[in-house]
Amino acid sequence: MNAVIRFSALARLLHWLMAAMILAMLFVGVFMAATEGAAYDTLLSLHRPTGITILALAVIRLGNRFLVAPPPLPGTLPAIQRMAAKGSHILLYALMVAMPLTGWAMLSAGAYPVVFWGSVHLPPILPHSPALFALLRHMHTWLGLTLFGVIVVHLGAALLHALVLRDGVFRAMASLRPGRCGRD
Q1: What is the pTM (predicted TM-score) of this model?
Q2: SS3 string of the chain?
């Protein structure tokens, strides 16, 4: 019996950690839009450092992806699905970087402090500009909605592989057991 080829342990850890963080951030963002006052301040104090942490983890994850090849997709997968898988992963990675960067840029343009944790502040990455702040705020919202949509599609594809196709794609990321990593 051949071992299932899996993503590396680091890739699996980062995937599930970031999945939980990103889903939490999407919900925090929705609640932030619907609240004000002390509740808004509390959510914002969670949102900023978590976004920066996601950005750092996305960079680590991208580096790991380039250094450790992901397992190959099954040979039975049609070419169109292979292209869709590759395209959706590129989009997910782009959004994992773009969302926190637009948030940081938005706060910079609004002349708001970017508090990472406690008294640790990040430097502004854009000059103060109310017009740019408004544009980036709108962009951050639309990127968040896009990320939510891509996650729904990603989850649907994962469930398709796990429950219908049963082709090992889901197990390559979901299994906690050790196994061969990367390509042969």
Answers
A1: 0.89
A2: CCCCCECCHHHHHHHHHHHHHHHHHHHHHHHHHHCCCHHHHHHHHHHHHHHHHHHHHHHHHHHHHHHCCCCCCCCCCCHHHHHHHHHHHHHHHHHHHHHHHHHHHHHHHCCCCEEEECCEEECCCCCCCHHHHHHHHHHHHHHHHHHHHHHHHHHHHHHHHHHHHCCCHHHHHHCCCCCCECCC
Phi, psi of 74 (to 5 degrees): -60, 145
Chain segment 129-160, per-residue pLDDT in tens: 999 999 999 999 999 999 999 999 999 999 99
Write down all domains in the chain, each with its CATH number in brackets: 9-174 (1.20.950)
